[in-house]
From TrEMBL:
GO terms for molecular function: ABC-type amino acid transporter activity; ATP binding; ATP hydrolysis activity. SMART domains: AAA (SM00382). It comes from Bremerella alba. The keyword ATP-binding applies. GO terms for cellular component: plasma membrane. This is Glutamine transport ATP-binding protein GlnQ.
Length: 268
């Protein structure tokens, strides 16, 4: 089999990747959404995921976040399988404690924010750390304020989501995901639902995170200039596989695959 990973070189085989994805399959009825997806991602890498609508980008992130189960293949985080597969490669339910532990390594931010509408900004950030991680109220509050400062939202700590603009909601959603201290952050088109004039404030937060934190970041994005600026590696999704991948300098200027060339023509 031809490996799809450009990272499948000698250096990679010496280190355990933080994320190891092999032959990942996902079907909805007759619709094969992921058709044997392979990729290895090292701790700290900033990965931009691009590709046409329906190519399986969100499905991959949802599987990584354990919001969906794959139909076959393997996902390993820090060398440990997330899903347990039976003999024919079908996913079996792993025990709840295992899933929770694996899930806690990741955080996800969605296109449509999903803030808790009945909680203040501060409470949005402190709820899960207190409930899930047993963090004390004082510590959770301190962390929340630090994160709100980082995303420029400390002045709105006591506001409610309905009082915020889309850009502000998204910055709070990013801070909320960070409050759980994930190793890996997944961002699914987090600027796509925003009015154009609000996109930059969210990109600016992401840019700071990408440059200053050593977290692993996977960003599905249509912002090609942004991807080019912050990504170590770009994955081009097409038809449920990674059709091409490489550093932004190569993918954006000398894509090899005709499908990548076609796609970039429509978005650049
Ligand atoms: P992308 O994020 O690249 O646009 P998605 O991963 O959202 O693509 O979707 C890939 C395909 O899977 C699409 O054809 C979509 O209609 C289908 N799909 C996604 N989620 C579901 C679901 N819950 N039920 C049925 N089909 C789905
Ligand atoms: Mg999507």
């Amino acid at each position: 089999m031809v490996t799809q990973t450009y990272s499948g070189n000698d250096f990679m085989s010496e280190t355990t990747p933080q994320l190891h994805i092999r032959d990942l399959q996902k079907t909805y009825g007759d619709n094969k959404v992921l058709r044997g997806l392979n990729v290895d991602i090292q701790a700290g890498e900033k990965i931009a995921i691009i590709g046409p609508s329906g190519s399986g980008k969100s499905t991959l992130l949802r599987i990584l976040m354990t919001l969906e189960a794959p139909n076959g293949g393997r996902v390993m985080v820090d060398g440990e399988s997330v899903w347990t597969m039976n003999a024919n490669g079908q996913e079996k339910k792993a025990d709840e404690a295992h899933m929770r532990r694996m899930r806690s390594k990741l955080g996800m931010v969605f296109q449509h924010f999903f803030l808790f509408p009945h909680l203040s900004v501060r409470q949005n950030l402190t709820l899960a750390p207190k409930l899930v991680n047993n963090v004390s109220g004082t510590v959770a509050d301190d962390t929340a304020l630090e994160l709100l400062q980082m995303v420029g939202m400390e002045a709105k700590a006591d506001a409610f989501p309905a009082q915020l603009s889309g850009g502000q909601k998204q910055r709070v959603a990013i801070a909320r995901a960070l409050a759980m201290q994930p190793e890996i952050m997944l961002f699914d088109e987090v600027t796509s639902a925003l009015d154009p004039e609000l996109v930059h404030e969210v990109l600016s937060v992401l840019r700071t995170l990408a440059k200053k934190s050593d977290m692993t970041m996977l960003l599905v994005t249509h912002e090609m200039n942004f991807a080019r600026e912050i990504a170590d590696r770009v994955l081009f999704f097409d038809g449920g596989v990674i059709l091409e991948e490489g550093p932004p300098s190569q993918i954006f200027t000398q894509p090899k695959e005709p499908r990548t060339q076609e796609f970039l023509k429509t978005v650049l």
